[in-house]
Backbone:
């Protein structure tokens, strides 16, 4: 198996008749999925998602793929194929379309409806091409065929891309639930047909490659839901992803059966479920769904609330309920169901919310104590089946952290894909398919691009490091007035500390040291404000470190008079 090397240089010119594959996100992480295909000077993009920030990225709202390598080539882009409507596959589209609003978006009915609603907030009206399974569309040199796959959102598609360099199949996110709620199966017949023609390169979802066996059926959840509903005394509050239409369908069915009304809470939940209902993906019995404002008129045992926040997101409805800053107040006897996965990195936030809800007396039902979630991704058993059907000539695991990619590569090798034709790449690593063989040829820039409020890419790793220091160590500001000719102190130093745990009065001890250091530098003829600032920073920094073993940020201000 070829593994990437940190010392990879820029990729060479793409050979005539070769196909280039460059993942810009989603490899080495779960999120911001984006892959660029290039043939004969033309580009096709598959997915453009966002990654959600972790605790060591304070203040960041979203993380985007890095568009640097294609920014100057947006006129070469034939279109963006969206495999399904999850945020980690469509969330970056508005930011790419800001650079060039007329790049066509290709996707299924629900996927396009979700992205159009999102783009409306950015005031962008996209060019769209709606496709469904079985369709074939020619996008420049890329002949794309769309294949139905089953996932935790309806209307997901895999895409087979035929080019003169060979056929590439990108699975998108998929699993093989054999009893899906909408009876729309992963189309193994279509994959077998593509296999007969010859799949030269398979890009395959790795999320659950480490999980043995088969992913359970979505419909297994309905019995668990009914048991929880049957035992619930008061209100039931369910937190789910705002896109998991099938999960929410099962909640609606249970509510209907037990004579409860349902209200959607939270902007994205209300919007997405409205779209799913209008397009016929969500079947809602008449009179079942009510506005959240009318809930006060109903007795508790007739109420179900469906909200977002199952990942412990601080601003989402569920976290705010746990912290008592939401109009819906949790009381003794309420039942809360977290009907979703634990995305790696979110565990602490989720347990914090569970503890908060439990403290107010709620009975919290979650993946850890009941079967209220099944994954949207194929486990190892399904992947083995899939590779035996597809018989890919080259395999490139996508969509996963390193451990997932590695596990997926092993599964491919077990089914007989030659090890020298399994490519483990990471974001920015360029893979060329030439003469039927895939290999790593170079690397392009593919860093994290941070969205913070309205700014995109202005916040860098350096400023995040500053934020972490400010958050962990606090800040000390020092204000000094010096005589511009002699360099002697005429006012100050005034020292103030915030968040460093040091009382302002304690700084009396260091003031003589500052006087002494500045007197010494004045005698040496140093009067340049910048040099004096560095001197003050060193003097106070050393004292704080020696006295308190702390390293706060120190901001000296020197004013000349």
Residues:
């Amino acid at each position: 198996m070829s593994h990437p090397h940190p010392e990879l240089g820029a990729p060479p010119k793409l050979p005539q008749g070769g196909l280039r594959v460059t993942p810009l996100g989603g490899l080495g992480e779960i999120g911001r999925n984006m892959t660029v295909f290039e043939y004969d000077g033309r580009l096709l993009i598959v997915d453009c998602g966002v990654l959600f920030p972790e605790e060591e990225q304070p203040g960041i709202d979203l993380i985007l793929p890095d568009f640097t390598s294609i920014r100057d080539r947006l006129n070469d882009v034939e279109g963006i194929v969206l495999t399904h409507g999850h945020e980690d596959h469509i969330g970056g589209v508005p930011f790419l379309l800001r650079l060039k609003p007329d790049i066509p978006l290709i996707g299924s009915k629900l996927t396009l409806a979700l992205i159009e609603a999102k783009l409306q907030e950015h005031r962008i009206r996209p060019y769209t091409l709606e496709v469904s399974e079985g369709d074939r569309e020619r996008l420049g040199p890329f002949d794309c065929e769309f294949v139905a796959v089953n996932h935790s959102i309806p209307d997901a598609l895999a895409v087979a891309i035929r080019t003169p360099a060979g056929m590439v199949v990108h699975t998108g996110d998929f699993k093989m639930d054999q009893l899906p709620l909408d009876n729309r199966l992963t189309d193994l017949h279509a994959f077998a047909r593509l296999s007969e023609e010859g799949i030269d390169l398979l890009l395959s979802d790795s999320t659950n490659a480490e999980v043995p066996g088969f992913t359970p059926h979505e419909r297994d959840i309905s019995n668990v839901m009914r048991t929880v509903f049957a035992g619930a005394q008061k209100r039931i509050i369910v937190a789910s992803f705002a896109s998991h239409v099938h999960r929410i369908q099962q909640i609606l069915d249970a509510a209907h059966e037990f004579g409860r009304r349902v209200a959607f809470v939270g902007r994205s939940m209300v919007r997405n479920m409205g779209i799913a209902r209008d397009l016929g993906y969500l079947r809602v019995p008449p009179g079942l769904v009510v506005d959240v404002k009318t809930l006060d008129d109903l007795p508790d045992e007739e109420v179900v609330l469906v909200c977002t926040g199952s990942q412990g997101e601080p601003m989402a409805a569920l976290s705010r309920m746990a912290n008592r800053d939401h109009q819906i107040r949790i009381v003794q006897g309420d039942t809360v169901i977290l009907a979703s996965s634990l995305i790696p990195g979110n565990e602490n936030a989720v347990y914090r919310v569970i503890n908060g809800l439990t403290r107010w007396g709620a009975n919290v039902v979650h993946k850890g104590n009941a079967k209220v979630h099944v994954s949207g991704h194929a486990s190892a058993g399904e992947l083995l089946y899939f590779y035996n059907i597809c018989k890919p000539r080259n395999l490139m695991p996508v969509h996963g952290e390193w451990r997932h990619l590695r596990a997926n590569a092993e599964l491919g090798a077990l089914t007989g894909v030659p090890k020298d034709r399994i490519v483990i790449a990471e974001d920015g690593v360029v893979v060329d398919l030439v003469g039927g063989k895939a290999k790593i040829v170079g690397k392009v820039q593919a860093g994290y691009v941070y969205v913070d409020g309205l700014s995109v890419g202005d916040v860098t790793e350096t400023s995040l490091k500053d934020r972490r220091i400010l958050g962990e160590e606090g800040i000390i500001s020092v204000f000094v007035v010096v005589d511009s000719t002699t360099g002697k102190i005429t006012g100050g130093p005034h020292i103030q500390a915030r968040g460093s745990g040091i009382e302002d009065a304690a700084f009396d001890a260091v003031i003589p040291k500052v006087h002494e250091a500045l007197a010494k530098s004045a005698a040496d003829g140093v009067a340049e404000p910048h040099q004096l600032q560095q001197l003050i920073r060193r003097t106070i920094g050393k004292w704080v470190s020696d006295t308190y073993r702390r390293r706060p940020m120190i901001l000296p201000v020197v004013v000349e008079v």
In short: The mean pLDDT is 90. The longest helix spans residues 529-548. The chain has 15 helices and 25 strands. The CA atoms of residues 165 and 323 lie 56 Å apart.
